[in-house]
Design brief:
By secondary structure, this protein is mainly alpha-helical. It has 2 domains: about 70 residues, no CATH class; about 80 residues, no CATH class. It contains 6 helices and no strands. Helix 2 packs across helix 4 and helix 3 crosses helix 4. The longest helix is centred in the first third of the chain and has 13 residues. The chain is globular.
Length: about 150
C-alpha cells in the first residue's frame, strides 16, 4: 500500500462520525414542519435533509433548532379544520393512508405535517372523536364560508 493510500484511508477513519442515534418520529415531524414552513416541497430535497439528519447529529441539531421558528398551532372553537394527527388515516410511519389508497389527490407516499390544520377530503375521525363527520362532510357545511372556500380560513 502506498503512502498516499495509507494517508487517504487514515483520513477516512478520522472523518467517520460515530453512529448517530436513530431519528425519532417526533424529530422527523419537527424537521418536516420546518421544511413545510419555508415552503420546501421538493421530495428529493426533503429526503436529502432527512438523510443528513439521520447520519449527522450536528445537522440534526441545526434543523431541530430551525424547527422552533414554526408557529405553534392555535385552537379555535369555531375552526372546522382538522389536523392530520387527529385523523385515523395517519399511519404510524407518518404517511397518509387516504393518499396511499388514492382517496385524495397527492403523492401516494404523502407525509403530511401532523399538526397543521387543514380541510382534507380524506379526513376520517378517530374512534374517540365526538365529531363523527368525515372530511367530505366537514367540507360541505360551514356556517361562515361558501363551498368555494374549501382550503381557506
Amino acid at each position: 500500500m502506498s503512502f498516499l493510500e495509507l494517508a487517504m484511508s487514515a483520513r477516512k477513519v478520522d472523518t467517520i462520525q460515530p453512529s448517530a442515534p436513530a431519528l425519532t418520529i417526533t424529530d422527523k415531524t419537527r424537521i418536516c414542519a420546518w421544511l413545510a414552513h419555508i415552503e420546501e416541497t421538493d421530495p428529493t430535497e426533503i429526503q436529502s435533509v432527512l438523510d443528513e439528519c439521520r447520519a449527522d447529529t450536528d445537522a440534526r441539531s441545526y434543523y431541530l433548532g430551525r424547527s422552533e421558528e414554526v408557529p405553534k398551532p392555535v385552537d379555535f372553537d369555531d375552526d372546522d379544520r382538522r389536523r392530520c394527527n387527529q385523523c385515523s388515516n395517519l399511519m404510524t410511519n407518518g404517511r397518509c393512508r387516504a393518499a396511499r389508497c388514492g382517496e385524495i389527490e397527492t403523492a401516494r407516499g404523502f407525509m403530511p405535517v401532523p399538526d397543521l390544520p387543514r380541510r382534507c377530503p380524506g379526513y376520517a375521525p378517530r374512534l374517540n372523536d365526538p365529531d363523527r363527520r368525515g372530511g367530505s362532510q366537514v367540507l360541505c357545511f360551514h356556517p361562515h364560508r361558501s363551498a368555494g372556500d374549501a382550503n381557506t380560513r
